Structures
1.
Amino acid sequence: MKVLVVEDDPNLGSLWERVLLEAGHEVLQTASETGAARLLETRPFDLVVLDMCINGRDARGISLLATYRNPTCKVVIVSGSSNFSRKALFAMSPAVSAALRKPVDIEDLLEVCHLVSGTDRRLPIQTVDGGGIEFRT
């Protein structure tokens, strides 16, 4: 699976990239909205792991660009803000398949990516309570 990680915290971005690489995925990571747009315009991706707020700015435009450039691409939103309701996160784009709240457990991130991308052979989880993970139903 080809994954784009968009996270402005260098420690988180590197961690998520490393974990996804170790799981056997092709991963590119960027810390800016401009970098994400450039990559989405030039390469196909199966999944975008998107921090909702990049360098203090709302990054919802990236989810729309991901859908436009890669119609089958899925988006996992990661947000540390409670300003966005589940309804608002999923309304950004039909490609938004899951939302995680920071702090994110790395095992949860990996499992969500596999579930959303269809690379997990188990039955999909529709909702996970208490872990800060929300799926489109």
Note: Residues 121-130 have pLDDT under 50 and may be disordered.
2.
Amino acid sequence: MSVEVTVIHGDLLEQKVDAIVNSWNRNIIPWWLLLPQGVSGAIKRKAGTVPFKEVAKFGAIPLGEARLTSAGGLDYKGIIHVAGINLCWFATQYSVTQSVKSAIALAEQQGYKHIAMPLIGAGSGNRSTRWSYQCIMNTLEQLDSSVAVKLVKFTDT
């Protein structure tokens, strides 16, 4: 069964799903030294620091991999953090493709049926909205999964 995708124009944190995806960094720099922006900043403002403290315990995250934390103060089963940008703060086709695959695999392992995903690589990843959207869609079209994805094309953060 292929991945069911719905493109949403809106706020990632307002989606009715089991989990959201946070396009995070590689976890090399401690979270408390960073000023989370975009999606990560919105998550921190609404969820608090708990998910970021939890993801820090994983140490360095290999490029394109995903880690699960609690949702903090948000009403989700969890937050899937993906290492979508390299050490130069740049998203590549590899980092985005692998991040999408890792997020779907982790959602499947947890039994999540619906996740919401931002445009991994856009913004802090120095890629355009169009590039990120196309890369994610190309990846999702090739996957077989029962996880439904709400791809949030524009976030109100």
Note: The chain has one domain: 5-154.
3.
Amino acid sequence: MAGDFVADCRMRQGTDLFAHVWDPVVVAALVAGPQRRRALRVSIGGISDKALTESLHRLVACGLLERRSYAEAPPRVDYALTALGRSFADGPMRALADWVLQYGDDLVDA
């Protein structure tokens, strides 16, 4: 078991998906379908423009989101979950949400 958890191990890569506060929130906001950046910012209360930009860049870079640009005037860009992003939302994020619903009061009380 020693050496199984090194700096670039898969467990660390997986837990990094929850390390940034806004990343899971952005993924959750896109579960309903593709959205433009402005619509995302409106639907996610309290996120700054900088935080949204950073989150979108991270999620695209790790393959959870895709950025679709359209040659229109004015230019249009949509963000959508990839198959990997949907599996993250339907799997670990759903499991965490279920756990928090069950044990959230215990967390607050502690």
Note: The mean pLDDT is 90.
4.
Amino acid sequence: MNLNKYRPILELFMISIVAYLAHKLFFYFKEGNPDFQNFHYPIETIYAFFFLCSAVILFILIQVNTKNIDNVGHSFLLITCVKMAISYAFLLPILHSGKPNIAIEKINFFVIFVLFLTIETLVTIRMLNNKQ
């Protein structure tokens, strides 16, 4: 079994760890600010959710790439739409909470969403550019 084809998932893991630590460090310095406390979801939960979604997406794209490279782009679009719908469902409790720091929590959620979406997009671009 060629483990090199699963390298994007390892890269995703490493980038996720670095981003999480940077994010956690940012929150550490804002510890006294009440706007950065009492979020509906802890930052670890959001990172775990998006890491799992991205890992599943990358795994599916790798499998599609090995069978038929022509379907990678369409698969990416379809899976990303499903991920967006699941993310919206995950975000709904935050949107409906009456907390005063909801704007900061929404920004926090979308920054993490965009980070993982960017990683997925770059990996897909790399797959499509390596046609054989």
Note: The CA atoms of residues 104 and 111 lie 10 Å apart.
